[in-house]
Write a structure and sequence with these properties.
Blueprint lengths: L5 E6 L1 H4 L8 H16 L3 E6 L2 H8 L8 H26 L3 E7 L7 H16 L2 E7 L13 H11 L4 E6 L27 H4 L12 H12 L4 E6 L5 H6 L5 E3 L9 H8 L6 E5 L1 H8 L11 E5 L7 E5 L5 E6 L4 H7 L14 E3 L1
The structure holds adenosine-5'-diphosphate and ligand VHF.
Protein backbone atom coordinates (compact mmCIF):
# COMPACT_ATOMS: atom_id res chain seq x y z
CA UNK A 1 0.00 0.00 0.00
CA UNK A 2 1.13 3.53 -0.78
CA UNK A 3 2.55 5.03 2.43
CA UNK A 4 2.56 8.71 1.50
CA UNK A 5 -0.84 9.89 0.34
CA UNK A 6 -2.30 13.14 -0.87
CA UNK A 7 -5.32 13.73 1.36
CA UNK A 8 -7.95 16.42 0.91
CA UNK A 9 -10.17 17.12 3.91
CA UNK A 10 -13.36 19.15 3.45
CA UNK A 11 -14.81 20.55 6.65
CA UNK A 12 -18.42 21.73 6.69
CA UNK A 13 -19.63 24.85 8.52
CA UNK A 14 -21.46 22.76 11.10
CA UNK A 15 -18.31 20.97 12.17
CA UNK A 16 -16.56 24.28 12.83
CA UNK A 17 -19.40 26.25 14.34
CA UNK A 18 -20.97 26.28 17.82
CA UNK A 19 -24.77 26.44 18.09
CA UNK A 20 -24.32 30.17 18.87
CA UNK A 21 -22.65 30.61 15.46
CA UNK A 22 -19.21 31.32 16.92
CA UNK A 23 -16.26 29.26 15.63
CA UNK A 24 -15.80 26.08 17.66
CA UNK A 25 -12.20 26.65 18.72
CA UNK A 26 -11.74 23.24 20.34
CA UNK A 27 -12.94 21.57 17.14
CA UNK A 28 -10.63 23.62 14.92
CA UNK A 29 -7.78 22.84 17.30
CA UNK A 30 -8.51 19.12 17.03
CA UNK A 31 -8.78 19.25 13.22
CA UNK A 32 -5.32 20.84 13.12
CA UNK A 33 -4.01 18.16 15.54
CA UNK A 34 -5.25 15.53 13.09
CA UNK A 35 -3.58 17.32 10.17
CA UNK A 36 -0.31 17.49 12.15
CA UNK A 37 -0.57 13.74 12.82
CA UNK A 38 -1.18 12.92 9.15
CA UNK A 39 1.75 15.09 8.11
CA UNK A 40 4.00 13.34 10.64
CA UNK A 41 2.95 10.06 8.99
CA UNK A 42 4.32 11.45 5.73
CA UNK A 43 1.06 12.46 4.04
CA UNK A 44 0.36 15.70 2.19
CA UNK A 45 -2.79 17.46 3.35
CA UNK A 46 -5.02 20.08 1.75
CA UNK A 47 -8.03 21.53 3.57
CA UNK A 48 -11.22 22.94 2.09
CA UNK A 49 -12.80 24.81 4.96
CA UNK A 50 -16.26 26.36 5.14
CA UNK A 51 -17.32 28.50 8.08
CA UNK A 52 -16.53 32.08 7.04
CA UNK A 53 -20.12 33.31 6.84
CA UNK A 54 -21.04 31.63 10.14
CA UNK A 55 -17.95 33.13 11.83
CA UNK A 56 -18.85 36.58 10.50
CA UNK A 57 -22.40 36.25 11.81
CA UNK A 58 -21.10 35.64 15.32
CA UNK A 59 -18.90 38.77 15.21
CA UNK A 60 -21.11 41.46 13.77
CA UNK A 61 -24.73 42.32 13.28
CA UNK A 62 -25.32 43.59 9.78
CA UNK A 63 -27.99 46.26 9.34
CA UNK A 64 -31.30 44.82 8.14
CA UNK A 65 -31.34 47.49 5.41
CA UNK A 66 -28.61 45.57 3.54
CA UNK A 67 -29.76 43.19 0.81
CA UNK A 68 -29.02 39.45 1.13
CA UNK A 69 -26.00 39.52 -1.22
CA UNK A 70 -24.32 42.46 0.52
CA UNK A 71 -24.99 40.83 3.92
CA UNK A 72 -23.26 37.64 2.84
CA UNK A 73 -20.32 39.58 1.41
CA UNK A 74 -19.86 41.53 4.66
CA UNK A 75 -20.20 38.41 6.84
CA UNK A 76 -17.74 36.43 4.72
CA UNK A 77 -15.26 39.27 4.61
CA UNK A 78 -15.24 39.61 8.40
CA UNK A 79 -15.59 35.89 9.12
CA UNK A 80 -12.89 34.54 6.79
CA UNK A 81 -10.15 36.46 8.59
CA UNK A 82 -11.44 35.34 12.01
CA UNK A 83 -11.47 31.72 10.86
CA UNK A 84 -8.00 31.89 9.33
CA UNK A 85 -6.65 33.54 12.49
CA UNK A 86 -7.70 30.48 14.47
CA UNK A 87 -6.26 28.03 11.93
CA UNK A 88 -3.03 30.01 11.83
CA UNK A 89 -2.72 30.01 15.61
CA UNK A 90 -3.20 26.24 15.90
CA UNK A 91 -0.92 25.40 12.97
CA UNK A 92 1.77 27.61 14.52
CA UNK A 93 1.43 25.70 17.82
CA UNK A 94 2.48 22.59 15.87
CA UNK A 95 5.33 24.48 14.16
CA UNK A 96 3.43 24.13 10.89
CA UNK A 97 2.56 26.67 8.25
CA UNK A 98 -0.85 27.01 6.67
CA UNK A 99 -1.94 29.33 3.88
CA UNK A 100 -5.16 30.82 2.58
CA UNK A 101 -6.35 30.08 -0.97
CA UNK A 102 -9.58 31.79 -1.98
CA UNK A 103 -11.10 30.64 -5.25
CA UNK A 104 -13.96 31.47 -7.58
CA UNK A 105 -15.61 29.55 -10.39
CA UNK A 106 -13.40 31.42 -12.81
CA UNK A 107 -10.38 29.68 -11.24
CA UNK A 108 -11.51 26.54 -13.12
CA UNK A 109 -13.14 27.99 -16.20
CA UNK A 110 -10.34 27.60 -18.74
CA UNK A 111 -7.55 25.06 -18.87
CA UNK A 112 -5.06 27.90 -18.27
CA UNK A 113 -6.88 28.97 -15.06
CA UNK A 114 -7.09 25.32 -14.03
CA UNK A 115 -3.36 24.73 -14.51
CA UNK A 116 -2.63 27.93 -12.61
CA UNK A 117 -4.64 26.69 -9.65
CA UNK A 118 -3.01 23.25 -9.79
CA UNK A 119 0.39 24.86 -9.90
CA UNK A 120 -0.38 27.06 -6.88
CA UNK A 121 -1.59 24.18 -4.68
CA UNK A 122 1.27 21.89 -5.77
CA UNK A 123 3.81 24.67 -5.05
CA UNK A 124 2.41 25.15 -1.53
CA UNK A 125 2.62 21.40 -0.88
CA UNK A 126 6.22 21.32 -2.12
CA UNK A 127 7.00 24.04 0.46
CA UNK A 128 5.43 21.81 3.16
CA UNK A 129 2.58 24.30 3.63
CA UNK A 130 -1.02 23.20 4.24
CA UNK A 131 -3.32 25.15 1.89
CA UNK A 132 -6.71 26.05 3.35
CA UNK A 133 -9.13 26.64 0.50
CA UNK A 134 -12.48 28.40 0.61
CA UNK A 135 -14.68 30.06 -1.95
CA UNK A 136 -14.01 33.78 -2.27
CA UNK A 137 -17.49 34.59 -0.98
CA UNK A 138 -16.82 38.32 -1.17
CA UNK A 139 -16.83 38.29 -4.97
CA UNK A 140 -18.65 35.02 -5.73
CA UNK A 141 -22.30 35.94 -5.79
CA UNK A 142 -25.44 34.59 -7.47
CA UNK A 143 -24.66 32.67 -10.67
CA UNK A 144 -20.91 33.10 -10.14
CA UNK A 145 -21.11 30.91 -7.03
CA UNK A 146 -20.19 27.24 -6.72
CA UNK A 147 -23.04 25.04 -5.48
CA UNK A 148 -21.09 24.73 -2.25
CA UNK A 149 -17.73 23.72 -0.81
CA UNK A 150 -18.49 20.04 -1.44
CA UNK A 151 -18.34 20.81 -5.15
CA UNK A 152 -15.06 22.70 -4.61
CA UNK A 153 -13.55 19.82 -2.65
CA UNK A 154 -14.33 17.45 -5.53
CA UNK A 155 -12.84 19.79 -8.12
CA UNK A 156 -9.66 20.27 -6.12
CA UNK A 157 -9.31 16.57 -5.23
CA UNK A 158 -9.39 15.58 -8.88
CA UNK A 159 -7.23 18.54 -9.86
CA UNK A 160 -4.36 17.59 -7.51
CA UNK A 161 -4.96 13.85 -8.15
CA UNK A 162 -5.60 13.24 -4.45
CA UNK A 163 -5.60 9.68 -3.15
CA UNK A 164 -8.28 10.39 -0.58
CA UNK A 165 -11.10 12.91 -0.18
CA UNK A 166 -12.59 13.06 3.33
CA UNK A 167 -15.82 15.05 3.53
CA UNK A 168 -16.54 15.94 7.15
CA UNK A 169 -20.08 16.87 8.14
CA UNK A 170 -22.15 16.66 11.33
CA UNK A 171 -23.59 13.19 10.61
CA UNK A 172 -21.82 9.80 10.59
CA UNK A 173 -22.22 9.37 6.83
CA UNK A 174 -25.05 8.60 4.44
CA UNK A 175 -28.06 6.90 5.94
CA UNK A 176 -30.74 4.85 4.23
CA UNK A 177 -33.21 7.52 5.37
CA UNK A 178 -32.99 10.89 7.12
CA UNK A 179 -30.71 10.29 10.14
CA UNK A 180 -33.43 11.50 12.52
CA UNK A 181 -35.63 8.53 11.49
CA UNK A 182 -35.32 5.62 13.97
CA UNK A 183 -34.83 2.91 11.35
CA UNK A 184 -32.28 4.86 9.25
CA UNK A 185 -29.12 2.77 8.83
CA UNK A 186 -25.63 4.04 8.12
CA UNK A 187 -24.35 2.94 4.71
CA UNK A 188 -20.73 1.87 5.16
CA UNK A 189 -19.79 0.85 1.63
CA UNK A 190 -21.73 2.84 -0.95
CA UNK A 191 -20.90 0.53 -3.86
CA UNK A 192 -22.41 -2.49 -2.10
CA UNK A 193 -25.79 -0.92 -1.48
CA UNK A 194 -28.74 -0.48 -3.78
CA UNK A 195 -29.97 2.88 -2.60
CA UNK A 196 -32.70 5.10 -3.92
CA UNK A 197 -30.96 8.44 -3.41
CA UNK A 198 -34.02 10.57 -4.14
CA UNK A 199 -35.93 8.92 -1.32
CA UNK A 200 -33.07 8.49 1.13
CA UNK A 201 -31.69 11.98 1.05
CA UNK A 202 -33.83 14.93 1.95
CA UNK A 203 -33.11 18.40 0.64
CA UNK A 204 -32.81 19.64 4.19
CA UNK A 205 -29.55 21.34 5.18
CA UNK A 206 -28.14 21.57 8.66
CA UNK A 207 -28.19 24.98 10.31
CA UNK A 208 -25.07 26.55 8.78
CA UNK A 209 -24.66 24.29 5.73
CA UNK A 210 -25.26 25.31 2.15
CA UNK A 211 -25.30 22.22 -0.04
CA UNK A 212 -26.87 19.44 1.97
CA UNK A 213 -26.14 15.71 1.75
CA UNK A 214 -27.17 15.33 -1.89
CA UNK A 215 -24.29 17.42 -3.24
CA UNK A 216 -21.88 15.44 -1.03
CA UNK A 217 -23.14 12.17 -2.51
CA UNK A 218 -23.09 13.46 -6.09
CA UNK A 219 -19.57 14.81 -5.60
CA UNK A 220 -18.45 11.51 -4.05
CA UNK A 221 -19.83 9.40 -6.93
CA UNK A 222 -18.26 11.62 -9.59
CA UNK A 223 -14.87 11.98 -7.89
CA UNK A 224 -14.55 8.26 -7.07
CA UNK A 225 -14.99 7.64 -10.82
CA UNK A 226 -12.01 9.94 -11.41
CA UNK A 227 -9.74 7.76 -9.29
CA UNK A 228 -10.06 9.28 -5.79
CA UNK A 229 -11.22 7.28 -2.73
CA UNK A 230 -13.97 9.29 -1.05
CA UNK A 231 -15.32 9.02 2.52
CA UNK A 232 -18.13 10.98 4.13
CA UNK A 233 -17.88 11.04 7.92
CA UNK A 234 -18.64 12.90 11.11
CA UNK A 235 -16.18 15.74 11.73
CA UNK A 236 -17.36 16.05 15.33
CA UNK A 237 -16.02 12.56 16.17
CA UNK A 238 -12.51 12.56 17.70
CA UNK A 239 -9.77 11.31 15.35
CA UNK A 240 -12.27 10.82 12.55
CA UNK A 241 -9.69 11.27 9.77
CA UNK A 242 -7.61 8.27 10.91
CA UNK A 243 -10.79 6.19 11.27
CA UNK A 244 -11.98 7.12 7.79
CA UNK A 245 -8.61 6.29 6.26
CA UNK A 246 -8.73 2.86 7.95
CA UNK A 247 -12.35 2.46 6.68
CA UNK A 248 -13.50 2.09 10.28
CA UNK A 249 -16.15 4.81 10.08
CA UNK A 250 -18.28 6.78 7.62
CA UNK A 251 -19.55 5.94 4.15
CA UNK A 252 -16.89 4.87 1.66
CA UNK A 253 -16.86 5.28 -2.14
CA UNK A 254 -14.03 3.27 -3.69
CA UNK A 255 -11.92 4.87 -6.42
CA UNK A 256 -12.38 3.17 -9.78
CA UNK A 257 -9.88 4.74 -12.05
CA UNK A 258 -10.73 4.93 -15.70
CA UNK A 259 -7.43 4.78 -17.58
CA UNK A 260 -8.94 6.66 -20.52
CA UNK A 261 -9.41 9.74 -18.34
CA UNK A 262 -6.38 11.86 -19.10
CA UNK A 263 -5.71 15.02 -17.07
CA UNK A 264 -7.40 17.07 -19.79
CA UNK A 265 -10.47 14.83 -19.74
CA UNK A 266 -10.65 15.11 -15.95
CA UNK A 267 -10.72 18.87 -16.24
CA UNK A 268 -13.47 18.70 -18.85
CA UNK A 269 -15.54 16.30 -16.71
CA UNK A 270 -15.28 18.77 -13.87
CA UNK A 271 -16.07 21.78 -15.99
CA UNK A 272 -19.65 20.95 -16.92
CA UNK A 273 -20.97 23.77 -14.79
CA UNK A 274 -18.93 26.28 -16.80
CA UNK A 275 -20.35 25.14 -20.14
CA UNK A 276 -20.83 28.00 -22.61
CA UNK A 277 -22.94 26.16 -25.21
CA UNK A 278 -25.25 23.25 -25.99
CA UNK A 279 -24.73 20.87 -28.92
CA UNK A 280 -27.71 18.66 -29.77
CA UNK A 281 -26.69 15.57 -31.73
CA UNK A 282 -28.58 13.10 -33.91
CA UNK A 283 -28.89 9.34 -33.46
CA UNK A 284 -25.86 8.53 -35.65
CA UNK A 285 -23.57 10.80 -33.68
CA UNK A 286 -25.02 9.45 -30.43
CA UNK A 287 -24.15 5.89 -31.42
CA UNK A 288 -20.67 6.91 -32.55
CA UNK A 289 -19.86 8.69 -29.28
CA UNK A 290 -21.23 5.97 -27.03
CA UNK A 291 -19.71 2.93 -28.71
CA UNK A 292 -16.48 3.10 -26.65
CA UNK A 293 -14.34 3.76 -29.70
CA UNK A 294 -12.22 6.87 -29.95
CA UNK A 295 -14.68 8.91 -32.01
CA UNK A 296 -14.75 12.69 -32.22
CA UNK A 297 -17.91 14.79 -32.60
CA UNK A 298 -18.24 15.75 -36.29
CA UNK A 299 -20.49 18.53 -37.65
CA UNK A 300 -22.52 16.01 -39.69
CA UNK A 301 -24.07 14.70 -36.45
CA UNK A 302 -25.00 18.11 -35.06
CA UNK A 303 -28.70 18.99 -35.25
CA UNK A 304 -28.86 22.17 -33.21
CA UNK A 305 -26.49 24.60 -31.51
CA UNK A 306 -27.19 26.99 -28.65
CA UNK A 307 -24.93 29.53 -26.96
CA UNK A 308 -22.19 31.90 -28.07
CA UNK A 309 -19.22 29.68 -27.22
CA UNK A 310 -15.73 30.42 -28.48
CA UNK A 311 -12.83 28.16 -29.47
CA UNK A 312 -11.54 26.42 -26.33
CA UNK A 313 -14.78 26.81 -24.33
CA UNK A 314 -16.52 23.85 -22.72
CA UNK A 315 -19.75 22.78 -24.41
CA UNK A 316 -22.43 20.35 -23.25
CA UNK A 317 -23.42 17.55 -25.64
CA UNK A 318 -27.06 16.47 -25.55
CA UNK A 319 -29.33 14.04 -27.40
CA UNK A 320 -32.40 15.34 -29.22
CA UNK A 321 -34.56 14.83 -26.12
CA UNK A 322 -32.27 17.20 -24.23
CA UNK A 323 -30.56 14.54 -22.08
CA UNK A 324 -26.95 15.46 -21.28
CA UNK A 325 -24.51 12.94 -22.74
CA UNK A 326 -21.19 14.56 -21.96
CA UNK A 327 -18.92 17.56 -22.29
CA UNK A 328 -16.18 18.62 -24.64
CA UNK A 329 -13.79 21.42 -25.48
CA UNK A 330 -14.84 23.18 -28.69
CA UNK A 331 -12.19 23.24 -31.43
CA UNK A 332 -13.86 26.32 -32.92
CA UNK A 333 -16.52 28.84 -31.96
CA UNK A 334 -20.33 28.83 -32.37
CA UNK A 335 -20.28 31.02 -35.48
CA UNK A 336 -18.23 28.51 -37.46
CA UNK A 337 -20.10 25.55 -35.95
CA UNK A 338 -23.43 26.98 -37.11
CA UNK A 339 -22.09 27.18 -40.66
CA UNK A 340 -20.63 23.64 -40.63
CA UNK A 341 -23.40 21.76 -38.80
CA UNK A 342 -25.03 18.84 -40.66
CA UNK A 343 -22.25 18.92 -43.31
CA UNK A 344 -20.08 15.92 -44.24
CA UNK A 345 -16.26 15.95 -44.28
CA UNK A 346 -15.77 18.89 -41.92
CA UNK A 347 -13.30 19.10 -39.01
CA UNK A 348 -14.48 17.77 -35.64
CA UNK A 349 -16.13 20.30 -33.35
CA UNK A 350 -14.94 18.25 -30.35
CA UNK A 351 -11.89 16.04 -30.77
CA UNK A 352 -11.95 12.69 -28.93
CA UNK A 353 -9.01 13.78 -26.71
CA UNK A 354 -11.17 16.62 -25.42
CA UNK A 355 -14.41 14.71 -25.05
CA UNK A 356 -15.87 13.07 -21.95
CA UNK A 357 -19.00 10.99 -21.96
CA UNK A 358 -20.94 10.85 -18.67
N1 LIG B 1 -29.92 10.17 4.04
C1 LIG B 1 -29.20 11.10 4.71
N2 LIG B 1 -28.06 10.72 5.33
C2 LIG B 1 -27.30 11.63 6.00
N3 LIG B 1 -27.61 12.94 6.12
C3 LIG B 1 -28.74 13.39 5.53
C4 LIG B 1 -29.59 12.48 4.80
N4 LIG B 1 -30.64 13.21 4.33
C5 LIG B 1 -30.45 14.49 4.74
N5 LIG B 1 -29.33 14.64 5.48
C6 LIG B 1 -28.86 15.91 6.11
O1 LIG B 1 -27.66 16.43 5.47
C7 LIG B 1 -26.98 17.25 6.46
C8 LIG B 1 -25.52 17.49 6.07
O2 LIG B 1 -25.40 18.41 4.98
P1 LIG B 1 -24.96 19.96 5.18
O3 LIG B 1 -26.01 20.66 5.95
O4 LIG B 1 -24.64 20.49 3.85
O5 LIG B 1 -23.66 19.86 6.09
P2 LIG B 1 -22.21 20.56 6.03
O6 LIG B 1 -22.35 21.91 6.62
O7 LIG B 1 -21.38 19.65 6.86
O8 LIG B 1 -21.71 20.61 4.60
C9 LIG B 1 -27.12 16.44 7.71
O9 LIG B 1 -27.03 17.23 8.87
C10 LIG B 1 -28.50 15.75 7.57
O10 LIG B 1 -29.48 16.40 8.34
N1 LIG C 1 -17.91 29.50 1.65
C1 LIG C 1 -18.93 29.40 2.71
C2 LIG C 1 -19.35 27.96 2.94
C3 LIG C 1 -20.35 27.46 1.98
C4 LIG C 1 -20.63 25.96 2.15
O1 LIG C 1 -20.61 25.22 1.17
O2 LIG C 1 -20.88 25.51 3.41
P1 LIG C 1 -21.02 23.97 3.82
O3 LIG C 1 -22.25 23.40 3.15
O4 LIG C 1 -21.14 23.99 5.31
O5 LIG C 1 -19.76 23.25 3.40
C5 LIG C 1 -18.36 29.90 4.03
O6 LIG C 1 -17.15 29.83 4.25
O7 LIG C 1 -19.17 30.33 4.85
Amino acid sequence: MKTSKKILIKIGSNVLTLPSGAPNEERIKHIVEQVAFLKKEGHQVVLVSSGAVAAGRSKIEVPSSLDAISKRQVLASVGQIALMNLYNQYFTNHQLICSQVLITKESFSTREHYLNMTNCVEALLKCDITPIINENDVVSVTELMFTDNDEISGLVASMIQADELLILSNVDGIFTDHPSKPDALLIRDFDNEEIDLDNAISEEKSEFGRGGMLTKVNTAIKIAALGVNVSIGNGTTPNITAQLLKREAGTFFKAHFDKNKTAVKKWITNSGTFSKGKIFINKGAYNALLNNQANSLLPVGIEKIEGAFKKGDIVTILDLEGNEIGYGKASYGAEKALVLQKQHNQPALVHYNYLTIK
